[in-house]
Design a protein that fits this description.
Family: Belongs to the TRAP transporter small permease family.
Shape: elongated
InterPro entries: DctQ, TRAP_DctQ
Organism: Allofranklinella schreckenbergeri
Subunit structure: The complex comprises the extracytoplasmic solute receptor protein and the two transmembrane proteins.
Largest sheet: 2 strands, antiparallel
Structural class: mainly alpha
Number of domains: 1
GO biological process, one term: C4-dicarboxylate transport
Helix content: over 70%
Radius of gyration: 21 Å
């Protein structure tokens, strides 16, 4: 049996609340993308038939796209469905590949943590100012920061989990 590679480490099934949370993210994103497709298609058909179209369908689909994207990102990362350029990692010895994996996961965690913190600050400022979004729908502006905050926190959690896995593999290999 070949040794595990850093660029494609064996992934034990994550059970419990975290695995269910990631599955819920994927399911919610899929539902939102599907509903967005139905909404847009219905709007196009109604407009072409000269009937009243769905008011605010463009705005609703924009919000659905934003929420679905930020909710799908952690699920994609969890399932290794993200875009990954690992040419260098594949050519390195396992110890160096694991070190690079750990470094990248730690940097990605830091970026997501900063993004989460900034989204909290933006939401807090918008709430304190009483800022509102005025389009077809009117609602507090801070609501727009919630999907970003949720996605950034979940991505940070996943990158932390990956960094811990890389660290454990590095320790096991004596790296």
């Amino acid at each position: 049996m070949p040794a595990p590679q850093a660029h494609n480490p064996p992934e034990p099934a994550v059970r419990g609340w975290y695995g269910r949370l990631m599955q819920a993210c994927g399911a919610l994103a899929a539902l939102l993308f599907g509903a967005m497709g139905v909404l847009i298609a219905s709007d196009v058909v109604l407009r072409n038939l000269g009937l009243h179209w769905i008011v605010a369908s463009t705005e609703i689909s924009e919000y659905m796209l934003m929420v679905a994207t930020f909710i799908a990102a952690p699920w994609l990362l969890y399932h290794n469905g993200h875009i990954r350029i690992d040419l260098l990692v594949q050519k390195l010895p396992l110890r160096w590949a694991l070190r690079l994996e750990l470094l990248c996961d730690a940097l990605a965690f830091a970026v997501c943590a900063v993004l989460a913190w900034q989204s909290v600050r933006v939401a807090r400022d918008a709430a304190q100012q009483g800022a509102m979004v005025f389009k077809e729908w009117m609602f507090p502006e801070w609501w727009l920061s919630v999907p970003l905050l949720l996605g950034a926190v979940l991505l940070a959690m996943e990158f932390a989990r990956r960094a811990l896995r890389a660290w454990r593999m590095l320790v096991r290999t004596g790296g």
